[in-house]
Specification:
heterodimer; A: 348 residues; Rossmann fold; 8-stranded mixed β-sheet; B: 301 residues; mainly alpha; elongated; MetI-like (chain B); BP-dependent_transpt_permease (chain B); OppC_N (chain B)
């Protein structure tokens, strides 16, 4: 089904500063997973670009393929999944063509990743400093002592107070927010240019979320990182991101500058997501929701994939697979009716 | 790639020293366990005997004095003499080293084979796991004694060959423990995050899996050591292990059994040594298990 779609070349599809400046570029990335239904496509033709010094948000419900997309960027797909089509390039390395051994040399150096549950990402049996230093020892061949000294500097960079003492503590002595800072220090140890943050604040207290996000934003600015921020929290996206890609059922359904996408969404799914956000300005109004759930991958319909849950679906128009098309400069939508329907966004 | 962003760091680099908490906390817990302390003391004493045996033995353990056969304990022979007039105390002391070395050989060999196989099978899973596990299962079906007889029949009698047979018998216990612990550790998120920061599989095995596997492994090794001591005694007793004139506890038991009616005192020294050693290793195993367990009631103090 996906072979029918034609996708505009990625260079035209994004707002990155230029083709060569992209730290991440996926082209027609398609991932299949082996299930009892055979090989099932779970990520379908994703074109995504993250430029230097920009934060790109990747949003969507659970099961929309956000995490699988990010894992394939790191070459971390589980054994039962494979990239069946398309390419992933991170800073000139074709990730999708590398062997495991070569991938290990790229991870942490060109691209790094932080995960949802920072505490579980740290080995409880080692000091946090040890674990951050490990990356330096692995990639730079530094001695334990030299790596530890640099680790203290990294801890200061991610604003962990009393760094020299804290490096010798164990994960259980750190709060969730502090653990995420440690993970950031670990991720940034070898100066990668691409940081993938997979729901970095979902497991944290609300009060800590903001601090961690501000830290990511500050580091991104200071180090000129390209950040791929995966989240289902549109509030976070609105605050953090320069550009946004909305995923639904394994496809990018809308992509564009964050402002434009929020104020004037052109895909019903984006609009519905925005309507289901809690907003003080809409106090008293009923909260929007999207009926139904994302279909499981083996039941992705050959039509517009959102059709079954779409409030604007019209039979004859939405029965065909829909290609991502450019509505205005750098603004893409996968809705057949984009432009003819009026979709509410959030008020500026 | 830009240089690492560096903020001023005034701390004394000397304060950043990797520590060995792991050992220290476990030792702290071990020290509070009376049975474990007892076992360690016993094992240290036995170890000392093993090292010093030849020097502290009052007489040559193999010196035959047919004039003083089967003499009960006396001033000249503290534990008496055996049927060839050899000093029992001297033989007992010298046998300690032979037994401990044999036990270390068997456990060491089993570790050398069982641990890598277990880690690889547990980490790789799939076909590798299935194949290795079936081979190990087949190994488990072998009756230990029959296996020992077969090995000795093929390779000839001797302590080393007997230990080889024993180590084959205990390989599965190590393999299964390591494989299970590896499977448990493999799915931890910190393994995933280590991969994300560029660790190779070998590095992950070495740095993350092996430490996670080590505690149950140590416990098992301690228990296995006691099993091997018993096995040595049994095999030597049956004539499948050590051969005269070598002194081992099992051989001494064999000698003692043939004179049980006339010189019953001969049975006690090797029995006590075997029992003490087994007790030591078993209690140490228990203590280690408690000390390294993740959940403790005392908050790890």
């Amino acid at each position: 089904m996906s072979a029918l779609e034609t996708v505009p070349p990625p260079a035209a599809a994004d707002g990155a500063d230029g083709a060569d400046d992209a730290v991440l570029r996926t082209t027609d990335l398609t991932v299949e997973v082996s299930t009892e239904h055979g090989w099932v496509t779970i990520v379908d033709g994703v074109d995504l670009t993250v430029g230097r010094n920009e934060i790109v948000g990747l949003v969507g419900e659970s099961g929309s393929g956000k995490t699988v997309t990010s894992l394939s960027v790191m070459g971390l797909l589980p054994k039962n999944a494979r990239i069946s089509r398309g390419t992933v390039d991170v800073m000139g390395s074709r990730i999708s063509a590398l062997k495991e051994r070569q991938l290990a040399d790229v991870r942490g150096v060109k691209a790094a990743m932080i995960f949802q549950e920072p505490r579980r990402c740290l080995n409880p049996a080692f000091t946090v400093g040890d674990q951050v230093a490990e990356s330096l020892r692995r990639h730079r061949g530094w001695s334990r002592k030299r790596a530890m000294q640099h680790t203290v500097e990294l801890f200061e960079l991610v604003e962990i107070p009393d760094a020299a003492r804290r490096v010798r503590q164990y994960p259980h002595e750190f709060s969730g927010g502090m653990c995420q800072r440690v993970m950031l220090a670990m991720a940034l140890a070898c100066d990668p240019m691409l940081l993938i943050a997979d729901e970095p604040t979902t497991a944290l207290d609300v009060t800590v979320q903001r601090q961690v996000l501000e830290l990511i934003r500050r580091l991104q600015g200071e180090l000129g990182l390209g950040v791929l921020l995966i989240t289902h929290d549109l509030g976070v996206v609105a605050e953090m991101c320069d550009r946004v890609a909305v995923m639904y059922a394994g496809q990018v359904v809308e992509q564009g500058a964050a402002d434009a996408l929020f104020h004037d969404p052109s895909h019903p799914y984006t609009s519905a997501l925005l309507q289901s956000m809690l907003e003080p300005t809409r106090r008293g109004e009923p909260l929007g929701f999207i009926p139904g759930v994302v279909p499981p991958p083996h039941e992705f319909p050959p039509t517009c994939r959102f059709q079954a849950r779409c409030a604007h679906a019209v039979d004859e128009q939405c029965r065909r697979p829909v290609a991502l098309r450019e509505l205005s400069a750098h603004h893409l939508s996968r809705c057949e009716r984009a432009g003819e329907i009026d979709l509410p966004g959030v008020t500026p | 790639m830009t240089a690492a962003p560096v903020s001023a760091h005034d701390g004394d680099p000397a304060t950043v020293r990797p520590r060995r908490w792991y050992q220290s906390r476990i030792l702290r817990r071990l020290r509070r366990n009376k049975a474990a302390v007892f076992s360690i003391v016993v094992l240290i004493l036995i170890g000392l005997i093993a090292v010093l045996g030849e020097w502290i033995a009052p007489q040559d353990p193999n010196k035959v004095e047919l004039t003083s056969r089967l003499m009960g304990p006396s001033g000249a022979h503290l534990l008496g003499t055996d049927e060839l007039g050899r000093d029992v105390l001297s033989r007992l002391l010298v046998a300690t080293r032979v037994d401990l070395l044999a036990s270390a050989q068997a456990v060491g060999l089993a570790l050398l084979v069982g641990v890598p196989l277990g880690i690889v099978a547990g980490y790789a899973g799939g076909v590798t796991d299935a194949i290795v596990s079936r081979v190990i299962d087949a190994l488990m079906t072998l009756p230990p004694l029959i296996l020992a007889v077969v090995v000795v029949a093929i390779l000839g009698p001797g302590l080393r060959n007997a230990m080889l047979a024993i180590s084959v018998v205990i390989i599965p216990s190590f393999y299964r423990i390591v494989r299970a612990s590896t499977q448990g550790a493999r799915s931890e998120l910190y393994i995933e995050s280590a991969r994300a920061s560029g660790c190779t599989s070998w590095r992950i095995l070495w740095r993350h899996i092996l430490p996670a596997v080590a505690p149950p492994l140590l416990v098992q090794a301690s228990f296995s050591a006691s099993v091997v001591i018993v096995a040595e005694a049994s095999l030597s007793f049956l004539g499948l292990g050590a051969r005269a004139p070598q002194a081992t506890w099992g051989l001494m038991l064999n000698d003692a059994s043939s004179n049980l009616t006339t010189a019953s005192y001969l049975i006690y020294p090797p029995t006590v040594m075997v029992a003490l050693t087994i007790l030591g290793f078993s209690l140490l195993g228990d203590g280690l298990r408690d000390a390294m367990g993740r959940q403790t009631t005392d908050g790890g103090r």
